[in-house]
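We keep the chain:
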Amino acid sequence: MEDIRKRAKLRTLVLIVVMCSATAAFGSITITPVSPTSAEFITIRVERHFGGLAHVTSASIVQIGNTFVIQQNVDDSGCILPLPSDLISEFQVGPLASGTYSVTATTTMIGSSPPCNSPIVTEQTAGFAVGSAVPAL
């Protein structure tokens, strides 16, 4: 009976550790200014809130037509430490021609030691429109 209780406690502990290490679900993509024109500089900000200790090791952006593809790499070696981290990458992409644009941001989290060493890949998407700088007559 005591052995069963010990195994149940161990399973509960493992479940708690796994849940804490997988709390990378909160994130956003923000475009500034909110309603840009073709004459304004535009910033794309990718932000993720992670429930454990983590930091961005690299981030890149590529423009393919009217689509921006962002890759954010994160070291989450401290995933079991309950120290919330905000993972932020910003990119200046404007001014841009009038039109609609999409953003896909992929975050890859890789730690260096168990239980944090299994890659976690998450993706966010957003869209925005750039208006003409000259009002139509």
Observations:
- The chain has one domain: 2-130.
